[in-house]
Amino acid sequence: MDISFSLKRSLIELARRGPDKLVSSGVSNRTSTMNTSTPAKDNGIEKKTFKGDRSPRPSRVLHLCRIPSDATEAEVISLGIPFGRVTNLLMLKGKSQALLEMASEEAAVTMMNYYTPTTPHLRSQPVYIQYSNHRELKTDNLPNQSRSQAALQAVNAMQAGNLTVTSALGADGGLCPGSVLRMIVENLFYPVTLEVLFQIFSKFGSVLKIITFTKNNQFQALLQYADPMNAYYAKMALDGQSIYTGCCTLRIDFSRLANLKVRYNNDKSRDFTRHDLPSGDGHPAVEPPIAAAFGSQNIIIPSYAGAAGIAPAMGFAQGLPVPAVPVALGSLAVPTSAASGQMTVTGVTGIPGNSVLLVSNLNPEVITPHGLFILFGVYGDVHRVKIMFKKKENALVQMADATQALLAISHLNGQRLYGRVLHATFSKHRTVQLPREGEEDHGLTKDYSHSPLHRFKKPGSKNFRNIFPPSDTLHLSNIPTSVTVDEMKKLFANTGSTVKAFRFFQKDYKMALIRLGSVEEALQALIELHNHDLGEKHHLRISFSKSTI
Questions:
Q1: What pLDDT sits at residue 156?
Q2: pLDDT at position 49
Q3: What are the pLDDT digits (tens) for 197-244?
Q4: Extended strands (E) in 466-536
Q5: Among 129, 379, 438, 516, which one is least packed by beta carbons within 10 Å?
Q6: For 68-117, how does the pLDDT look when each residue is reduced to its tens digit (9 = 90+)?
Q7: CB-based contact 109:58 (threshold 8 Å)
């Protein structure tokens, strides 16, 4: 029998009967989408297993059951992309099923390991996943595959940092490149504050602005991310979830607004990139401890680490500085049996409103107080740094205020630095104590309260508007006109970095962009070279760039 004809016939039969229910009437499994030995059969039909009876043999093709009829291709793809690249999709909406093909068997195994104890949801309905008997998908000759392929192309474009494809697919493919989310909180039994929204949504990326308001007797909010990918994953993970047990349910969609305009920093609105905004008449600043607003109620955000061996922030494309978070995680609510009066946000623990951070898992052979001052100083003015004498993997970093501390956590927690994954959270300490007079400190505690290197000491400084997540591309400024491209490349190469690209600004040769081999290299280069003396009374200024080259 002709191979191509057999493939086509097998796939048509697959589409008619269901993804894992191929009838073996003259069609060999070797010539279908599978390329391994024939699986066990029962009366000529492959055994159909469900969650309690999973196929023991892993495959990079996964069988999804009970998919909501109104679920889009993009939503189905979103279940797989935190674990690796999705290479193909076959939707069978009439059967409420789909086949999802991952780029590797390892990615599929990781996905199965994560979703086995944690049932994913699409549009508030549970979806069941198992290994497929098929080893790969070949859907080239099948009809009605344009939507699936368009959704795959859009996701791949987003992962590569190219959002041009998605703008044309927002309505049809289910994806939207916007970075602004609009949310409605239903069944508002307990108050939901701006701080709570910030801590929940910061798990998915850098939150720039939040505006809360009441419309049609409903509590609503607009939230803007630094990156559209972050907004997409937050929507996929949190839409339909409840903040508290049985109440305060989030309904999330993309806003038509491209950018939020925040006039005041208070308890109703906040621009986390502009610390110079006024609070407005009658509106308190965002400083009181969050717990006071909730009495004895509890809030908990689950840890987004997957199965054993999966880091809390899993990479998508190499060098892409977007934290990958498994979507459709189930309830956000704290169990009713939790101890009353305690407020827990995983990854952001301690006392809300505090400005002192506990930084852990540092490399003690390399890290210094000055290095932490420079790194955390990208997101706020660092007043004091203390590296623990007996456990030098840990340090305390005191920021100018609680807002800057939150900003530093949201950007730096989970980043790799000197070969280790940095962890940043709130400390139980309210201040960093300086050593008493005559006390030996070995230079581990430093006071930077009056440092001239503070970036945000001037009200209205443009630095407030140029705060971006860590990336492999750095923005350089204050460069003497006599310095050449080769000299700048050599300077960064001497830190151990791999220089991928360099470009001076056409209109201002005192500024440039440099792209290094990884985000980790960029972090380390910033620490080592910020304020580097370039001669002619010019000291190099370095920050993370929103652009790439």
A1: 62
A2: 40
A3: 988 888 777 889 999 999 888 899 999 998 787 787 788 778 888 887
A4: 473-477, 499-504, 512-516, 533-535
A5: 438
A6: 888 888 888 878 877 778 889 998 888 899 999 998 888 888 888 877 77
A7: yes
Which tokens sit at 18? Answer: 């269901």
* Residues 156, 139: Cα–Cα separation, whole Å: 18
Are the CB atoms for 493 and 526 separated by under 8 Å? no
**Radius of gyration of the chain from its Cα atoms, rounded to whole angstroms:** 26
pLDDT recorded at residue 464? 72
Residue 390's pLDDT is 87
* Helix, strand, coil percent values for the chain (each to nearest 5): 25, 20, 55
Helix-helix angle 146-159:228-238, to 10 degrees:
120
Q: Which residues are 212's β-sheet partners?
A: 221
Q: Nearest CA to 189 among 244, 239, 241?
A: 244
Give the alpha-carbon dihedral of 169, 173, 174, 180, to 10 degrees.
-20
334: CB partners within 8 A, 6+ apart? 244, 245, 298, 299, 300, 344
249's tokens: 């349910």
The H or E element that residue 220 is part of is: strand 218-225
pLDDT of residue 38: 37
The set of residues, in sequence order, having a beta carbon less than 8 Å from that of 382 and lying 6+ positions away, is: 372, 373, 376, 397, 398, 399, 400, 448, 451, 454
Using a 10 angstrom Cβ sphere, with 0-12 exposed, 13-18 middle and 19 or more buried, the burial of residue 228 is buried
Other CB atoms within a 10 A radius of the CB of residue 389 amount to 11
**CB-count exposure of residue 37 (10 Å: 0-12, 13-18, 19+):** exposed
Task: Return d(Cα 99, Cα 74) in angstroms, integer.
Answer: 13
Q: To which residue do tokens 């992309």 refer? A: 81
**Nearest Cα to 93, choosing from 138, 146, 144, 22?**
144
**For residues 218 and 12, what is the distance between their CA atoms, to the nearest angstrom?**
48
Q: Tell me if 155 sits within 8 A of 173, measured CB to CB.
A: no
Amino acid at position 43, single letter: N
Quote the CA–CA distance of 88 and 139 in Å, as a whole number: 8
Angle 402-412/369-376 helices, nearest 10 degrees?
A: 100
Please check whether residue 183 is in contact with residue 250, taking contact to mean a CB–CB distance below 8 angstroms: yes
By three-state DSSP, how is residue 293 classified? helix
Low-confidence residues of the chain: pLDDT under 50: 1-55, 161-176, 282-352
- Cα separation, 540 vs 531, whole angstroms: 5
Render pLDDT for 242-290 as a digit per residue (tens, 0 to 9).
887 667 889 998 888 889 999 999 889 999 888 788 887 544 444 333 3
CB 19 within 8 A of CB 63: yes
In the prediction, which pLDDT does 110 show? 81
Cα 475–chain centre separation: 22
Residue 432 per-residue DSSP state: P
Check residue 30 and report its DSSP letter. G
Cβ atoms of residues 59 and 87 within 8 Å:
no
Q: Tell the burial category of 126 from Cβ atoms under 10 Å away from its Cβ (0-12, 13-18, 19+).
A: middle
Q: Which domains does the chain have, with CATH numbers?
A: 3-155 (3.30.70.330), 178-337 (3.30.70.330), 356-447 (3.30.70.330), 471-544 (3.30.70.330)
